[in-house]
Write a structure and sequence with these properties.
Distance between the termini: 81 Å
Number of strands: 14
Strand order of the largest sheet: 1-2-3-6-5-4
Radius of gyration: 29 Å
Structural class: alpha+beta
CATH topology of the domain at 78-159 and 257-296: Thrombin, subunit H
Shape: globular
CATH superfamily of the domain at 78-159 and 257-296: Trypsin-like serine proteases
Helix content: 10-25%
Order of helices and strands: HHHEEEHEEEEEEEEEHHHHEE
CATH architecture of the domain at 78-159 and 257-296: Beta Barrel
Amino acid sequence: MILVTAATDMIPKSKETFRLVYYLRQFMSISSPKLILLKIMFVLFATIFTVAHAEEFGVARRVPVEQTHKQPSQQILPYVVRIIAFDSSGQSFGTGSYIGTYGEYGVILTNWHVVSLTSGLVHVHFPSGFSSFGARISGDEKWDLALIVISKPPQSVPMLTIAQTPAKKDEPLWIVGWGSGSYRIAGGHCVRYMAREKPTDGSDPLFEIIEVSVSARKGDSGGPILNQKGELAGVLFGSDMIRHTAGSYSGRVNQFLVKTQNEMAGLPERPESYFALIEKDGPLHKLRDSRNAVPQTVEEQRTDFSGTSVPSFGIRSSSRRYAPPIEL
């Protein structure tokens, strides 16, 4: 019975296992040596089985392998913001990434087409509930990139870092966006790199558009494309609305940020005074009124990269189709 007790003590304790141990000990009370040997083997088998299936017995919870390394898809990322840009005809919805600070300013990276038509301030909303007016200070229309400055968040917010190494083909990637109000992270893989156009001087094309095997939604424009390290591998600017999303890759983003240094250096010391000057010439909207803003239900036709007209809902689609790769 000492051996029986020792073997059964190896089994993890719970209501179910206590009941199992009780019956096993009763079963082992038979004194026949042959039966005892058989029952010892049975107890060892039961012990191994119980430990291996501890989760089913309510003893322990096994964490799946894929959850041991948290991927961006399992988190609400605090640096991915919702952007609402107002103009004379309505509002445009987009997504942006909080990438740094400059004095009393916070810096948001997004798409040019999200903020290109605004004549006043944009509204920026963080997942934490913090909101701020924002002003467009720099843009690159060709590569669809723009910088917005906001009032620096009162609490520390993690900032998204830019990947220094381009994503490789078939590497897992995630796109993040607020759509027209709903937050989503969707995963895919790096499909390929494309060139925006074929140079007329005969030089090699610049393959600086990254394509990801996942579809974006209207309002995801300007959102980050993330690699496995949680770094920015690109800024998405369009989708075929079926299975692929395209954006400017991280190397192009870095080049754009280098060019914005002069604009940052010329900012006034206080964001409030800067915003007050801009708002005089633009439409006036309160931050609290834009928090729950949704697209208007008026259907409008808009032209995409390839020159074909596609239907979209709301005032300017903030996610758009992109041109197919050039034929070389």
